[in-house]
Amino acid sequence: MSISPLARVSSGVRLGRNARIGDFTIVHDDVELGDDVVIESHCVIGHPTPLAEGRPLVIGVGALVRSHSIFYQGSTFGPGLRTGHRVTVRERVTAGVDLQIGTLCDFQGHTTLGDHVRTHSSVHIGQLSRIGDFVWIF
Q1: Quick check: 44 pLDDT over 90?
Q2: Residue range 124-138: average pLDDT?
């Protein structure tokens, strides 16, 4: 495990084996990070919101969250999540395995995504969207 001395990680976080947290990243309570997760610099992970209804943010094994990304509490991501830079993901997103979110994407929450979904850069996903398996959105 490698946590930058410049990061702020709450004592209520569950960190998997070999998790890495970058400089100036904030990880709030009610966050579960799987094994081999990498959170780069300047991220906010588990941003508190009452809209999460007490659910934790769960990021599965082998995720890579690139710099300046914000993930709210209350979402669940399967293994293999990959993001570009400056991604925003609101509460209550449920995603399967191998989700790839492009740079500057905005997921507005209460959304379900299947396995092996890809979004290109600058994609906006509105609330209550349901996206199946093997979908690529430009």
Answers
A1: yes
A2: 97
